[in-house]
Sequence to fold (349 residues):
Amino acid sequence: MTMSIRQKGDKALQLLLIEMMSTTSEEAELCFPQLNSSCRTIMRPHSVSMLIYFTLSSISVLTVVLNLLVIISISHFKKLHTPTNLLLLSLAVSDFFVGLLMVFQIILIDGCWFLGDLMCAVYFIFDHIFTSASIGTMVLISIDRYVAVCYPLLYPTKVTQNRVKVCVSVCWMICAFFHCLLLKDNIKHPGRYNTCLGECVVIKDYYAGIADVLCSFIGPVTVIVILYVRLFVVAVSQARAMRSHIKDVTLQGSVRVTVKKSELKAARTLGVVVVIFLMCVCPYFCVTLKGDDAVVSASSAAFVMCLFYVNSCLNPLIYAFFYRWFRNCIRVIVTLQILKPGSREANIL
Fold:
């Protein structure tokens, strides 16, 4: 049996906190003082506790609020109902729930789980589903941009809103089915792998762990990198073509298709999203794949785990920086103009 990839990261964070303790483990309090079989809490200075709670709580709140703004913007304004924005909506939904689930991660920081064994298993299943849906959506975004830039004539007919909705729905259903299947033993027998009361542990067998790594990391990242390398080559070629000033246009040249500037800009913006996503996700999986000896790399593992979750907060900030429509939507929402009749038809582009 092997520990879940994400569970390794959670343990690493707890190990890092143990390193920061000023008291010995013998002085630690029990999660359930009335029971001798209870797990021990992680004791540390009050200032450290406040810093940790404030940091993680801020990240959680910021992630939820920013992604909620994206969800409201794309869902409300009809001008934003495009195939690409529907993919961004799916990504925002997954990141929104990741931000909500960070509340449970904050609960686990002290080393105690008070919500029961079944809720522990449910928490990790949803955590796996939402993070996998985020990765799957990144793959769909890469495919969308690849078709838009490399096959611009086919894009309007091949990539439609209905097809994108179907692809997003299938992606979420596959993620839900896949991780429910991998973690079914933990649902049938919640808490069977706990060593003490108050512990929250999820375990997969060896082959399930391999399947998780292949389907949740290696496969998607490979597809994303290949598509964006190809996209980058085509985008550079198109940029050179648009900069060239050819006065004598032949018949063959007149029908040659060049990619719109808007498509290149969208590809560049979403390329930034994908690159930051890979920078946040790859270190996490690389560290946790080193093995069960998390004590040696507790600090690095805890850092990349936090980096993994922070990625869900960064995407809306990237939109705010690159997309004028998102900044306009924020202004309309904050000023409550969104409540006015006919606001759905507003031109916020």
Notes: Residues 17-27, 247-258, 292-298 have pLDDT under 50 and may be disordered.
